[in-house]
């Protein structure tokens, strides 16, 4: 009898963490490494939020809180949904977790039984399929290629639905592609879902505020209120307020689901960090000017990276609507040989060769379920991005 759980064997380590770890190893050896694999804003948490965390410590808010969030933070989240999304929720319909990942994990663990299917458009965030597998469900991957702007179409969704389908996971704007669903595109999906009353929607809105140009963010329960009773809308403070390390995510949905998630959380992590909850409350209720400032910086960086990558032979880089990622195709490089002699027969081979030969760390597209692509996070300085795209261009030009 083996010691480790059979369930654990169904999942794999995070490829993004693996690439970040390899880049750190090379940096420790003295290599000049530019890390573009981690999805984390490079800005400091805004001052008023940091001060709120310090004030919480000084006020003695260092004990256990309610399992799934303080009443005051839940009220602030309700106000956020009303103010920004036109959605009316009561505190009993809100769950606060240790990051958005825990909200997603709790929802899937609380609802999935063996044989239940979860539709996941690809490219997808690397953790979605593994969380489904850990919960005993079956991921149903639907490829959404560059020809559809990396978006799920109603036709592809309809084809993936079976009597076993329990959830659809939507992420807009998307990690890794940055693709967003406009109101009409979202409406086409919600119209279809109205005809399938047993399917729930898990909407990952973590990049809600990082949208560019004239793109208008919408979320499924906002576009189609009749779906609200079977939608869990997940969000958090990590990306919008540069609070990744504070670990606060939240979800809004039907009360029976929220209670089930709280039950699960009570037997796992219990409450999120009390200090972080007070800081998150300050983020949601305080000045919001940081959001527009960071958005302008990220849009400038997006344009810099898209222009630089499209100047590279063999790379095709679409312009994303949001988040802080690009997801270029390397179709034009497949089969070529790098200057150091590596055959580029996959996007993983490309990413590994790029790191070893140029010191630029990216994540290969197969990790996100759609090849031949790679992901760059442009949540770093303009100078680093300029140098990185120049190295990538030299790498591509040297391939034969």
From TrEMBL:
<keyword id="KW-0663">Pyridoxal phosphate</keyword>
<dbReference type="InterPro" id="IPR015422">
    <property type="entry name" value="PyrdxlP-dep_Trfase_small"/>
</dbReference>
<comment type="subunit">
    <text>Homodimer.</text>
</comment>
<comment type="similarity">
    <text>Belongs to the class-I pyridoxal-phosphate-dependent aminotransferase family.</text>
</comment>
<dbReference type="InterPro" id="IPR004838">
    <property type="entry name" value="NHTrfase_class1_PyrdxlP-BS"/>
</dbReference>
<dbReference type="InterPro" id="IPR015424">
    <property type="entry name" value="PyrdxlP-dep_Trfase"/>
</dbReference>
<dbReference type="GO" id="GO:0004069">
    <property type="term" value="F:L-aspartate:2-oxoglutarate aminotransferase activity"/>
</dbReference>
<dbReference type="GO" id="GO:0030170">
    <property type="term" value="F:pyridoxal phosphate binding"/>
</dbReference>
<dbReference type="GO" id="GO:0006520">
    <property type="term" value="P:amino acid metabolic process"/>
</dbReference>
<dbReference type="InterPro" id="IPR050596">
    <property type="entry name" value="AspAT/PAT-like"/>
</dbReference>
<dbReference type="Pfam" id="PF00155">
    <property type="entry name" value="Aminotran_1_2"/>
</dbReference>
<feature type="domain" description="Aminotransferase class I/classII large">
    <location>
        <begin position="32"/>
        <end position="392"/>
    </location>
</feature>
<keyword id="KW-0032">Aminotransferase</keyword>
<protein>
    <recommendedName>
        <fullName>Aminotransferase</fullName>
        <ecNumber>2.6.1.-</ecNumber>
    </recommendedName>
</protein>
<dbReference type="InterPro" id="IPR004839">
    <property type="entry name" value="Aminotransferase_I/II_large"/>
</dbReference>
<keyword id="KW-0808">Transferase</keyword>
<dbReference type="InterPro" id="IPR015421">
    <property type="entry name" value="PyrdxlP-dep_Trfase_major"/>
</dbReference>
């Amino acid at each position: 009898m083996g010691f480790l759980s059979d369930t654990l064997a169904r999942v794999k380590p995070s490829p993004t963490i693996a690439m970040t770890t390899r880049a750190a190893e090379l940096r420790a050896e003295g290599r000049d490494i530019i890390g573009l694999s981690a999805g984390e804003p490079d800005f400091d948490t805004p001052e008023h939020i940091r001060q709120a965390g310090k004030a919480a410590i000084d006020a003695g808010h260092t004990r256990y809180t309610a399992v799934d969030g303080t009443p005051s933070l839940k009220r602030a989240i309700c106000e956020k949904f009303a103010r920004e999304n036109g959605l009316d929720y009561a505190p009993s319909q809100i769950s606060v977790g240790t990051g958005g990942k825990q909200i997603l994990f709790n929802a899937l663990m609380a609802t999935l039984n063996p044989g239940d299917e979860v539709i996941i458009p690809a490219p997808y965030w690397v953790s979605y399929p593994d969380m489904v597998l850990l919960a005993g469900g079956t991921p149903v991957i639907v490829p959404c290629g560059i020809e559809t702007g990396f978006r799920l179409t109603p036709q592809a969704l309809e084809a993936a639905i079976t009597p076993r389908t329990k959830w659809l996971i939507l992420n807009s704007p998307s990690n890794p592609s940055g693709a967003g669903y406009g109101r009409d595109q979202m409406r086409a999906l919600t119209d279809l879902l109205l005809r399938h009353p047993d399917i729930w929607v898990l909407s990952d809105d973590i990049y809600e505020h990082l949208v560019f140009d004239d793109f208008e963010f919408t979320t499924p329960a906002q576009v189609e209120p009749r779906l609200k009773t079977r939608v869990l809308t997940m969000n958090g403070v990590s990306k919008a307020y540069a609070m990744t390390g504070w670990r606060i995510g939240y979800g809004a949905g039907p009360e029976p689901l929220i209670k089930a998630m709280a039950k699960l959380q009570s037997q796992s992590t219990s409450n999120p960090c009390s200090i972080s909850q007070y800081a998150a409350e300050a983020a949601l209720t305080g000045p919001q000017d940081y959001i527009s400032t960071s958005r302008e910086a990220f849009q400038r960086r997006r344009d810099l990276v898209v222009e630089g990558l499209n100047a590279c032979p063999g790379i095709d880089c679409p312009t994303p609507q949001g988040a802080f990622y690009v997801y270029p195709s390397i179709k034009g490089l497949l089969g070529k040989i790098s200057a150091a002699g590596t055959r580029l027969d996959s996007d993983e081979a490309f990413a590994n060769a790029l790191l070893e030969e140029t010191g630029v760390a990216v994540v290969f597209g197969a990790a996100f379920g759609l090849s031949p692509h790679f992901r760059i996070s442009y949540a770093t300085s303009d100078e680093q991005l300029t140098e990185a795209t120049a190295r990538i261009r030299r790498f591509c030009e040297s391939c034969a």
